[in-house]
Amino acid sequence: QKEVEQDPGPLSVPEGAIVSLNCTYSNSAFQYFMWYRQYSRKGPELLMYTYSSGNKEDGRFTAQVDKSSKYISLFIRDSQPSDSATYLCAMSDSGGSNYKLTFGKGTLLTVNP
Amino acid sequence: GAGVSQTPSNKVTEKGKYVELRCDPISGHTALYWYRQSLGQGPEFLIYFQGTGAADDSGLPNDRFFAVRPEGSVSTLKIQRTERGDSAVYLCASSLNVQNYGYTFGSGTRLTVV
To answer: Between A6, A8, A46, which is nearest B103 by CB?
Structure first.
């Protein structure tokens, strides 16, 4: 079993839909949780960053972390065609190697106009 | 520069050849990271530099892989005796200091070993 599991999709939704993306993980040492967006043939770019449990909102994006269930989510409201990309969850622990990110496989999202 | 620059963007090489992949980080960023992204997978950590030294090379898969950063800015990832399994996108990232949230990734070098 991989440390981080993420359904690769693909996920196809109509414009304006609410999108829910999620990851599960097995390493209880993970304390930092991130969501990256990766367009085709580009590097990942950071969307959301959360420490420990809780919710964080930024515009149309909301990140949730439930450490008791080892489950994280990203919600996208009012999805736009420009949101079409691969979404990667990433995590790291709080120790001296917290720079080392462990990524999920990524979920490919298409938002149809 | 404005972002992390990686060259070449694409590299096709024959099995058994030696390749070098270059990363030019954001000016002033002291921390530099290499990741490898295989098809359909998320990036996997390879190595982290703080300044000129490799602070953590635990992700390098074997001794065919080596990376340097001699002057604390540009880094080169070197792969000897390439194998078809080395085919992947090699991503470089940099950050102002060592941290897990301030990474800026480059667009990567797509390596194909034939």
So the answer is: A46
Kindly report each contact of residues A59-62 with a partner whose C-beta sits within 8 Å and lies 24 or more positions away, as own/partner.
Answer: A61/A35
d(CA B63, CA A82): 41
> How would you class B85 by CB atoms within 10 Å of its CB: exposed for 0-12, middle for 13-18, buried for 19 or more?
exposed
Facing residue for A103 by CB, picked from B31, B42, B99: B42
Class of residue A67 by CB neighbours under 10 A (exposed 0-12, middle 13-18, buried 19+): middle
Count how many pairs of residues, chain A against chain B, have C-beta atoms within 8 Å.
Answer: 62
Label residues A29-47 b or e (16+ Cβ within 10 Å = b). ebbbbbbbbbeeeebbeeb
How many whole angstroms separate alpha carbon B71 and alpha carbon B87? 28
Tens digits of per-residue pLDDT, B44-96?
A: 999 999 999 988 999 999 999 999 999 999 999 999 999 999 999 999 999 98
